[in-house]
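Lab notebook, bench 4. The sequencing result for the construct came back, and we need a structural model before the next group meeting so we can plan mutations. Quick request posted to the team channel:

Model the 3D structure of this chain.
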Amino acid sequence: MATKKTFISTGFFLISIAYLVYAVIHIISTSAPDFYVYYYAGKDFLHGINAYADTALYTLFTYPPVSLVAISPLALLPVQISQAIFVIISSFCIFALPFFSMKGLRVPFPLITLSFITACFIFSFPTKFTLGMGQINAIALLIFMFGILIKRRPFFKSLLLI
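Done. Here's the predicted structure in token form:
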């Protein structure tokens, strides 16, 4: 019976990874509307323009000013390349989040359980929406989790939790 569960979980995991790769390729080749807000707000920041007053953006930029410092290097590259980098980073964060969540909760987990939870996480609506719209949620959550998981170095930990 355990081998049947292992086979099903492994198959589900592999299908979810294939879906994630497909989604990343599709998003890179089309558009991620929220990413454009970050990109052009970063461009505004680099040109000394108030990113919070730019009404040409898809939606208003409402993130803290420190996020402009983190986002602005992407504005140095062409928008399509920046979007590809951003979506790939976001997808790696989506892939890593279940592992670090379980690690942070100190839940003992076999690999098969982790792969099943990761697959469920990839197929969940909030994850697909975050990736498809080009939102920063997965990246921000992973940074926040690293801030919680770091045991020493309180200065670095506090920087991650800002």
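The mean pLDDT is 88.
Will bring this to the meeting.
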